[in-house]
Design brief:
about 40% helix; single chain; 5 strands; 6 helices; alpha/beta
């Protein structure tokens, strides 16, 4: 068993595919560090939820000390700076972890990052869950999609947290 696995994403919103990745990571590692990208970006159609809202969604589904949810800034056009920022936040979050790796799904060209971390070679590849993706969920949210269809693609606790967040804002 590894000391830690790192799962990087925007989680806009957190859905059943993300949940499956973390469940798999918990079977293979003592701790899972969920690195939430675009953490300090202003709300927009691509990033409608704040870091705190996404952290709350994830922690509602995984209320365990084994899952650590941490923010990271974006560094457009500077992969080295981004990699260093992620490695630093992971080092700070699990300072005693020696055997650390990445876990993720190579869905398309945006998944290139799984292969650019010099310290974390040979990421753990996971499968897509039922074709679920956050882009489609956001589209349903903004275009008045069926709440039932949206809820079916998200863990119940994450959906409830998201729905409460939308009502407040």
């Amino acid at each position: 068993m590894r000391d830690a696995l790192v799962f990087i994403g925007r989680f806009q919103p957190f859905h059943n595919g993300h949940k499956a990745v973390i469940e798999g990571a918990l079977e293979q590692a003592k701790e899972v560090v969920v690195v939430v990208g675009s953490s300090f970006a202003a709300r927009n159609i691509r990033n409608p939820f704040t870091f705190q809202e996404r952290k709350t969604m994830i922690e509602a589904v995984f209320p365990t000390d084994r899952v650590k949810v941490v923010p990271v800034s974006d560094y457009p056009y500077d992969d080295n700076k981004w990699v260093n920022a992620i490695q630093k936040v992971v080092d700070d979050t699990v300072p005693n972890a020696k055997d650390v790796g990445l876990i993720g799904h190579s869905k398309d060209s945006t998944s290139y990052y799984l292969n650019i971390f010099p310290r974390w070679k040979n990421h753990v590849e996971v499968s897509n869950v039922d074709g679920i993706n956050a882009t489609d969920i956001r589209k349903m949210l903004f275009e008045g999609g069926s709440p039932g269809k949206i809820a079916a693609q998200m863990p119940t606790a994450a959906y409830s947290t998201m729905a409460n967040s939308i009502i407040r804002n």
